[in-house]
Amino acid sequence: MRHRYLQISHPSPPRCVWRLMETMLATLVLLTSGAGGAGWSVTFEETDLCAPLGASVEIGCSYDYTAGETVQQTAWHKGRLQRGLWTRVALADLPSFQNRSEYLGDRRHDCGLAIHDLRVNDSGHYYFWFDTETFGRRSQGSVYLTVTADAELSASVLPASVRAGDHVTLTCLTSCHPATTVWFKDGLPVARTQFQARAEDSGNYVCAVKGVESVLSDPVALDVQYPPLNVSVEMSSSASGVNLTCSGAANPAADRYTWYRGAGSSPGPLLEVGSGRVLSLASGGAAHAGLDYRCRASNHLGGSYSPGPPVTPDSTDISRVVLCVGIGVKSFVLLFLPLVIIWRLRRKPAAHKEESCDYENVITV
């Protein structure tokens, strides 16, 4: 009598179930495996990393051990299921990681790892192992890396245009979950994603997934507007007297400059004497000596005065140009007058000789 058997095929569990099984098995292995020794540890900067396909990722890692021991070997492993058992395989023994994995650490306390040209199969748990002359030890935890084909970054600054002192929030959206993002402003790291805007916060911002800083979002700009700051007055000489120039940093640029004058020894209010970025004081030092000058630069957000003590031109400052011109004229006369006299003297005898010859000819005739 022939027996018939019914063959039933079971569908393979979804990917999320496999990951849950891997995590449970990894935890079981960690609980049952012994490391031995005290005073040792392995610490990962991030335990969950996400990176786009084809990019490079860096795993931050540090380790410690009992004082007096010396590290002999270090290695990174990848966890995977083999015949239903959870095992750790050294990256050096996996052909797919040849020329793509790079140990960034040393044999002291740094155990960083970089993986280049990421592939989808690189997703999984990663462990660090080190060996001393006493014990071989491996990390009690792992880093789970997710490699995705779609890991777009979207950066935003809200609001994009603010006044100094307003609140600003930086937001970075990515398809990697979970993922820690980092920010850069004009190439420099940004410590906070929420802050009160200052004048120096203006610039271009980009974000990236931590550990995958090689892949950046499109830049977004932050424009911080503020009234004139650090207003100052610079004094220079001109052909007609002295020029006072007012300047200061502002966004938008200052569009109004007002000049004030007052007696240096008088506590009274300053008197408005002009406008424009440059105030020209004509020659006549006695009329301006002992008077204080300062300016106020302003835009639609406000204004600031140049700090004290105000600029005080004296008779020496204002008459300096006239003095220089007088010295220049005297130098010209003293230098070229002797040359003119010599030239005249050299030509005069020749003229007398010609005239005497003509005179002698006339007499002879």
Query: Whole-number average pLDDT?
Result: 79
Determine the fraction of residues in helical runs and give it as a percent range. Answer: 10-25%
Order of helices and strands: HEEEEEEEEEEEEEEEEEEEEEEEHEEH
Approximate strand percentage: 35-45%
Distance between the termini: 175 Å
Structural class by sheet pairing and helices: alpha+beta
Helical segment count: 3
Mind telling me the C-alpha Rg? Answer: 42 Å
Largest sheet: 7 strands, mixed
**Which word captures the global form?**
elongated
Low-confidence stretches: 1-12, 25-37, 317-329, 350-365
Number of strand elements: 25
Structural commentary:
The protein has helices spanning 15-32, 285-288, 315-364, and strands at 41-44, 48-52, 57-59, 61-64, 71-82, 85-90, 101-103, 113-115, 124-132, 136-138, 143-148, 153-158, 161-163, 167-174, 181-185, 188-190, 194-196, 203-209, 220-237, 241-251, 256-263, 271-275, 278-282, 291-299, 302-305. With 365 residues, the chain is of the alpha+beta class. Strands 13, 15, 16, 18, 19, 20 and 23 form a 7-stranded mixed sheet that branches. Strands 2, 5, 6, 9, 10 and 11 form a 6-stranded mixed sheet that branches. It has 3 helices and 25 strands.
